């Protein structure tokens, strides 16, 4: 029973990975039809949703409240991590999103985040720590310096992008709480607001809220960041505002969005996708071109914004930083 209900969610990646182009064409067609019909409907009835859809432009997806931290962006770029790959456009990176709390359709997420309230945003660092922390993201970005890094990012569905994230090394964020030596893993918990996130309300077969995890060595590796910005501005809601994780050598789903809790724990934590389909989404999930997903190859990836495919690299090209974590 439960299996049948869960399928729609994790079967989507297959359709995406194997016939993404078809799928996008169909969406475009539906969108064109839909807009025409909405235009007529609007004359008599200004429904909240249809109005939002008509008026929404890519740049409008930023937090609406005036930001007390706008002056922190753009942050200085740390060129140590600059990647020799062309930058993905801001439009592509902010209109094609995996964020199942809002929609399973990547091109719809950015249109459905309007009600999502990301300020003020409380989050905590708890568990096996000497100094548990409770603070807002606005406080966090004043406490620790922000920097910009250009990273490759690779989704398990075999698409990839290269974009400038702004944030703080996660090691520094975790250090605020002074982890105990018994802490071996870090667990991330995303928000739960079904009134603001339509798919949390509709698709109740998922184990909301989203949860992920890393070993403490992975979480405190110099590459891992707590991210609050993108393209020199505050993080758009659809990309995981106001605080998300970025782990650039692992498949995208390891990088939890819109987190409210970082918990230091002793045992390897359970993770959202691993619980749904353990054979397809492992806890480790390092990018590896030689290990195919059970339903598709991971040897190449499509660069967002076009049809070009390039070879996928072991650890997404970050072996010099992380190979040592796995060499025992
Ligand atoms: N809370 C939450 N975090 C999430 C996801 C999600 O659905 N919910 N999707 C993951 C997946 S599969 C990917 S590829 C990336 C997508 O991030 P982006 O939309 O900023 O590209 O977010 C990851 N983090
Ligand atoms: Mo993904």
Q: What does it look like?
A:
By secondary structure, this protein is of the alpha+beta class. It folds into two domains: 16-61, no CATH class; 64-325, Oxidoreductase, molybdopterin-binding domain (Sulfite Oxidase, Chain A, domain 2, Alpha-Beta Complex). It is built from nine helices and twelve strands. The strands form two sheets. Strands 3, 4, 7, 8, 9, 11 and 12 form a seven-stranded mixed sheet that branches. It is globular and about 45 Å long. The structure holds ligand MTE and molybdenum atom. Molybdenum atom is lined by residues 98, 155-157, 252-253. Residues 97-101, 155, 190, 210, 239-240, 252-253, 255-258 line the site of the ligand Nc1nc2c(c(=O)[nH]1)N[C@H]1C(S)=C(S)[C@@H](COP(=O)(O)O)O[C@H]1N2.
- State the major sheet: 7 strands, mixed
How many angstroms separate the termini?
41 Å
Q: What is the CATH class name of the largest domain? A: Alpha Beta
Order of helices and strands: HHHEEHEEHEHEHEEEEHEEH
Question: Quick one: overall form?
Answer: globular
The name of the CATH topology of the largest domain is Sulfite Oxidase, Chain A, domain 2
Mean of all residue-level pLDDT scores: 86
Total helices: the number is: 9
Integer tally of domains: 2
- pLDDT < 50 stretches: 1-59
Radius of gyration: 19 Å
Annotated CATH architecture of the largest domain: Alpha-Beta Complex
| Percent of residues in helices | 25-40%
Number of strands: 12
Overall SS class: alpha+beta
Q: Which hetero compounds are present in the coordinates?
A: the ligand Nc1nc2c(c(=O)[nH]1)N[C@H]1C(S)=C(S)[C@@H](COP(=O)(O)O)O[C@H]1N2, molybdenum atom
